[in-house]
Design goal:
The chain has 583 residues and is mainly α. It has helices at 14-69, 73-142, 149-246, 248-271, 280-317, 321-400, 405-445, 455-530, 539-547, 553-564, and strands at residues 2-6, 533-538. It has a two-stranded antiparallel sheet with strand order 1-2. Helix 3 (149-246) packs antiparallel against helix 5. The protein is rod-shaped. The model is unreliable at 1-10 and 573-583 (pLDDT under 50).
């Protein structure tokens, strides 16, 4: 391929051409020297930033892993299971307690009947006491002819006193147990609605808390991952800058190779002082190649500086503040949940207190049952003694004949008292049987207050407590790691201004390329515009003597585009350098 070139020097003489070439080489030499310092400074700054970014990424990865493993999500199911167990356990207790209240009311009515019966038995003891007095009067009336009537009177007196003591004891204990049941029933009747309301309120509070926590969980859980992605992007940007700056050696070689090519062109022109114009076609082509190389360098550096600015913008936006807030937020949620869940334990204890009161009441009833049973057993003895007294009275009345009318009447009265006592004892036995049935029913209901019936609730409480403890530990870990990340990101933000200043100096330094390019571009335009084209240039020959300078892939691409009209390589954001050195 050949390319037309100017035939005469036109407005530029040999000396002027050489001066432009020499000035361009000198400018490139100054640029290379000054850029080394600024590139080293920027490279050092970004290597420090890369180290800080790596630290942040490790901490972010640890936080993401921790949040995924021990999220508040893991607590929700445990809390919900605990609430169900608590509701079921407390619900069963409330139902049992409500039923027990009704049972206590029935027991209260039965005890009232039993009290009436014991009062009737007390009246019977008074009747016997009156009979003993009447018998004593008759003894006095009959005198020595009374026989065994005195013994009968004495026995009636002793028996009536003993019976009075027994019935009085039974009356007092029965009334005491009745009052205990009344008090327990009233207390339960007053407090069960409050306990039921507290249970309902507890469910509402926990449900509300869970809804609030659940609403924020997705956003909260995504914060560490979002930060990690942002940190990864920033780390890639930093790595790209570092890689690009590390490849400055190739850019420096490009500058040196342009200097060498300009020296070669100058030497060709100098070697033929009289016929130097003949070398202008090759010089024209060679200069075009160098202009393309320098423009490529300028475009590459522009991408560097652009990448530096984007990277610094990314660093400025990188903030661990949202991640820092996760730890305290989760800890606050954990405290709120723990506080709400404490209500379950409180209500459980409250219901257990009612259980203790009911157990005490049932224990008192059991004592009463034992007392009534003992009294009923004695009732048989009492009936037997009454029968004996009646028979003795009849025998004495028969012995006395006409004088035994009063004694006979006493015998009839004793018989009536015996019948009353039998009727009262039978009624007492029936009342006692009903009380026993109610006590057994109540005892069965009390099973829901036992520890075994709360086993599922205890297990759920233990699981929830363990889960909350793990979440609390995870939140504290996240808080510590996030605080360290915040320190690092704050340090990175503080360094951005200094890095930006260094980047500005680098940009200004390479900005001198325009000053270097100006004269050589003007020379090429003048050669192209003002000279007549006489002859041609062998581009293959130019390519051959320039190829010895270009040792990188990017330089070969640029030379090929300049000589053969192929597409110029486009500078791109680099993460691995800006070219490959061939040899």
């Amino acid at each position: 391929m050949t390319s037309a070139a100017p035939a005469t020097a036109g407005t530029h003489g040999q000396a002027e051409v050489l001066a432009v070439l020499d000035s361009t080489r000198a400018g490139l030499e100054d640029l290379a020297r000054s850029s080394e310092v600024e590139v080293a400074s920027v490279s050092h700054a970004f290597k420090d930033l890369a180290g800080q970014a790596d630290t942040i990424l490790k901490q972010a990865a640890a936080i993401v892993g921790c949040v995924e493993k021990e999220s508040m999500h893991t607590v929700l199911s445990s809390v919900q299971s605990l609430c169900r167990s608590g509701r079921e356990s407390l619900g069963r207790r409330l139902e049992a307690a409500t039923t027990i209240v009704g049972t206590l009311q029935d027991e209260e009515a039965l005890l009232a009947r039993l009290i009436d019966l014991t009062h009737s038995q007390e009246a019977i003891s008074r009747h016997l006491r009156a009979l003993s007095v009447l018998t004593n009067v008759e003894v006095a009336h009959l005198g020595s002819s009374g026989g065994n009537i005195g013994l009968l009177a004495q026995e009636l007196s002793t028996f009536s006193k003993a019976l009075a003591r027994q019935t009085l004891e039974l009356v007092r204990d029965t009334e005491k147990r009745k009052q205990t049941i009344v008090d327990t029933r009233k207390e339960l009747s007053a407090n069960l609605p409050r306990l039921r309301s507290a249970l309902s309120q507890m469910e509402d509070d926990i449900a509300k808390t869970l809804r609030i926590i659940d609403a924020g969980l997705s956003q909260q859980a995504s914060i560490p991952e979002q930060f990690r992605r942002g940190a990864e992007d920033t780390a890639m940007q930093i790595a790209g800058v570092v890689a690009a700056l590390q490849s400055h050696d190739i850019t420096r070689q490009q500058i040196e190779h342009v200097q060498q090519a300009l020296q070669l062109i100058a030497s060709r022109i100098t070697a033929a002082p009289r016929s130097w114009v003949e070398h202008l076609p090759a010089a024209y082509v060679g200069l075009n190649v160098q202009i393309c190389q320098l423009k490529n360098i300028r475009e590459t550096v522009a991408h560097w500086t652009s990448q530096v600015r984007r990277c610094m913008d990314g660093i400025q936006q990188l903030s661990a503040s949202d991640v820092v807030s996760i730890g305290p937020t989760v800890l606050r949620q954990e405290r709120e949940l723990s506080s709400k869940l404490a209500h379950i334990e409180h209500l459980q204890q409250k219901s257990q207190e009612y259980s203790g009161r009911m157990q005490s009441t049932l224990g008192g009833l059991s004592s009463l049952v034992e007392l009534v049973n003992a009294h009923l057993k004695r009732s048989q003895t009492i009936r037997d003694r009454l029968q004996v007294l009646m028979f003795n009275s009849l025998i004495e009345a028969q012995r006395l004949g006409g004088r035994g009318a009063v004694v006979s009447a006493i015998a009839n009265l004793i018989q009536e008292v015996s019948a009353e006592w039998n009727a009262s004892a039978n009624h007492s036995r029936l009342a006692l049987t009903e009380i026993l049935n109610l006590v057994q029913r109540t005892t069965g209901l009390m099973e829901v207050f036992s520890e075994s019936s709360c086993q599922k609730l205890r297990e759920d409480q233990a699981e929830t407590a363990a889960t909350l403890a793990r979440v609390r530990d995870a939140a504290e870990f996240v808080a510590r790691e996030a605080a360290q990340m915040q320190i690092v990101t704050t340090s990175m933000h503080a360094n951005v201004a200094a890095v930006a200043e260094t980047g500005n100096r680098l940009e200004i330094c390479f900005g001198h390329l325009d000053g270097v390019l100006g004269p050589i571009e003007e020379l090429v335009r003048d050669l192209e515009k003002n000279e007549r084209h006489a002859g041609s240039c062998d581009t293959a020959e130019v390519e051959q003597w320039l190829s010895s300078f270009y040792t990188t892939e990017i330089e070969r691409y640029v030379m090929s585009a300049a000589l053969h009209g192929t597409t110029m390589p486009v500078a791109q954001q680099s993460f691995a350098g800006n070219g490959v050195e061939l040899f």
